[in-house]
Specification:
223 residues; alpha/beta; Rossmann fold; UDP N-Acetylglucosamine Acyltransferase, domain 1; 3 helices; 24 strands; globular
Length: 223
């Protein structure tokens, strides 16, 4: 088992992305008593403006250039789409090292391990011996119970709930208000619809919806 990490929020951060999700990331960084230096976004229409009082600079590749000149610079990827977040993270490896950003109103047990670049928003709960991967979004009021294993690039939407011993594979999306019952595995890049109750394993790439959850797709989702 991994040794629990002690999350130390970096004093100042850049934010990659400037959409609605970025607004909550910025709010979380500030609540954690850290400084947001600037945002980078690929949307030209957002350039030379600001979000939440933070300057929006050029495209995200400009941050890669910044890393080359200042290796101490680091950022949080504020992009909700899992595949896009993964693609950005791969460009930042191995020079990019950013601690997880944890809102003070998140309840996280001391035995939790949470990977770099992950964010835990207000009202979220992470219980004993949960292991959370890299660049994971634990959205508002989402809960992860004891001994869950969460892969890299997962997004747990607001109010989603994982019971004890749940495994969520790389890149999976758990929709708003969804419930995953104890010991269930949700596969890599799978999608669980909003409000679903999952009582059986979900294969890789599958989309399930409803109560109880049933598959609607066997293809790989684009999110």
């Amino acid at each position: 088992m991994r040794t629990p990490n002690h999350v130390v929020n970096t004093t100042s951060l850049y934010v990659l992305g400037a959409g609605g999700h970025a607004k909550v990331v910025i709010s979380t960084i500030r609540a954690a008593h850290s400084l947001v230096v600037a945002c980078f976004d690929d949307d030209e229409q957002k350039r030379d403006s600001e979000i939440g009082g933070v300057e929006i600079r050029g495209p995200i590749p400009e941050f890669y250039d910044l890393l080359e000149s200042n290796r101490s610079s680091c950022a949080v990827i504020a992009v909700g789409a899992n595949r896009m977040r993964a693609a950005i993270a791969l460009r930042l490896t191995p020079t990019y090292t950013c601690e997880a950003v944890i809102h003070p109103a998140c309840m996280m047990d001391s035995t939790v391990f949470i990977g770099v670049g992950s964010v835990a928003f207000a009202g979220s709960v992470l219980q004993a011996e949960a292991i959370v991967g890299r660049h994971v979004i634990i959205n508002t009021a989402a809960t992860i119970d004891h001994e869950c294993l969460i892969g890299d690039f997962v997004h747990l939407a607001p109010g989603s709930h994982l019971a004890g011993g749940v495994t969520v594979g790389t890149g999976a999306f758990i929709g708003m208000g969804a419930v995953i019952l104890p010991g269930i595995r949700v596969g890599d890049w799978a999608t669980v619809g909003a409000g679903a109750v999952v009582n059986r394993d979900v294969p890789d790439g599958q989309t399930v919806v409803g109560v109880p959850a049933r598959p609607i797709s066997k293809g790989t989702p684009t999110r």
